[in-house]
C-alpha cells in the first residue's frame, strides 16, 4: 500500500518546497532534492531518504520495481514542489555526501593510486548552472576534488544539482570558511602548484606544468578573483584570447584549464 | 523633445514584445532586440535602429549624450517588454548582421591575412544559452565563422544575444538549409578537415591536426550528431573523459575543441 498526498498544505509538501528554496534548511538537515528519472537512477541508493512519484510515473512501472516507502503526489502537487516547468514525475530527498580535505586530494580508498591530485578551487561563483557544469566537467577531466569558498552558491541548489549530471555524488568537494588559508596550505604543506586564472597573468595556461599536484583557482563571474586569493596562489595563468571578448564564461574557462591538465597528463608533459 | 510611451497597449510596445518572443517576426524584419547597458555600448551604431530608455536610466546621463530619436518607456512598460527580471533601463532594436559563405572562411576585408579558416558547425543546438556561450567562446578562440543548421535555435533569441557578449556582431555566421551539403562542400571544395565531435570516435581531439583549414562539427545537446552529418565529416574525434560522465555540455565540448585549435595554432603544431 503506497501512501498518497493530495493536499498542497500537507506538512511534507511544505517541507519539500522549503528544501527546494532554502539552502539553510538543506544545510541544517544535510539533505537536498533530486529531480527526474536520470538523477534518480544514477544516485547511489544509500543516499536516498525519501521518494515521491506521480501516478502517471508509476503507470509505466510495475509497483514491485519501486523501492519500498515511496509516496504518491498528485500531478498538481508535483508541479508545485518541482523546480522545473515540466516535472518528470519522480523526486527524492537525498542525503548530502560529506568529505574531508584528504578526500579532495584523491587519497580515498576509491581513488586511482599514484594519480597526482588535481583540484578546482572556486571563489564566490554565483551562477548555479555554472557551478553544476563545473562539477560535471571536473569529473570528466579527472579532477580529484573541488574546494569552494563559503560565499560560493549552494551546490545543492536544484539547478546546480541538475547541471552536475550526478557528478555531485562522485566528485569530492568541501566548502571552506578560509579560502586563502586553504590555498596557502595546499601550496606550502602539500606542495601543490596553485594556478590562479587571471586576466592580468603573463603565463599562458598551456605553459603551466599540470602533470604534478596542481590546482586551478577560478573567481566570481563578474569580478574575477579577489587580490587576496590571487596573491595566495603559486602563479597566475591566462587563456590567450583573440577578438574583443574580455573574458570567457567562468565555467568555460575552468573547463579549458581542467582539460589542458587532462591533456598534459595523458601526454606525460606539456 | 523626447517621445514618451505610457500605454502598454501602444502599437510599438506590442511590436517590441513580439520581437522578443517571435523568431519568425525577427527574421521577416531582419531586426532583433538588444537589452542592457553593456550590449548597447558595444554595438556598432550603424546596426541600431531604435532606442528605448526609462527616465531612471536618463537621470544619470545628460540628454545630449543620448543618440537622437530615443523613446522613453515607463518602468512598468520596460519590465513588460524586457526578457530579464531586472531590466537595465535601455533596449534597442538592432539590424541583424548578414554574411556570405566566404565571410565565414575569414576572407573578409577585416580578417587577418593568411590565417587558416577555423569553423564551428552546429547541428540542431537547442539551448539558447549554449548557443550564445559558443559564439562568445568562438570569438575568443579565433574562429573565423559559425555555420548553423536551420533547426538550430534562433541566434537572435534574447537569451542567446545576452550570452554572446556582443560576439554576435563580430563572428560571421550563416544558417543553412542543407548542412550535409555544406559540410561536403567545405571538405571537398575548400579542402577543410571537418572534425565531428562524436562519443564513438577513435581519435582523441588532441591528435587531430588543427593548424590547417578545419572545422568542428557539434551536435544536439541530447542526441548528438545525426549519422548523416557525422558521415559527411572528414573524421570523428572525441574528448577523452574520466569518471562516469557520459558526455560534456555541448558548449563546453565546443569550447575545449576550439581552444585546442587555438593552442595548436599558437604553438605551430600538435
Task: Break the fold down into its secondary structure elements and pairings.
Two copies of one chain form a homodimer.
Chain A: E1 3-5, H1 11-21, H2 23-29, E2 31-35, H3 37-42, E3 48-53, H4 55-59, E4 70-73, H5 75-81, E5 90-95, H6 101-104, E6 118-122, H7 128-141, E7 145-149, H8 158-164, E8 173-176, H9 179-188, E9 193-197, E10 203-204, E11 214-218, H10 227-232, E12 235-238, H11 250-267
Parallel strand pairs in A: 1-4, 3-4, 6-7, 6-11, 7-8, 9-11, 9-12, 10-12
Antiparallel strand pairs in A: 2-5, 3-5
Helix pairs in contact in A: 7-8, 7-11
Concise structural overview:
The first copy, chain A, has 270 residues and is α/β, with parallel strands linked by helices. The first copy, chain A, has helices spanning 11-21, 23-29, 37-42, 55-59, 75-81, 101-104, 128-141, 158-164, 179-188, 227-232, 250-267; strands at residues 3-5, 31-35, 48-53, 70-73, 90-95, 118-122, 145-149, 173-176, 193-197, 203-204, 214-218, 235-238.
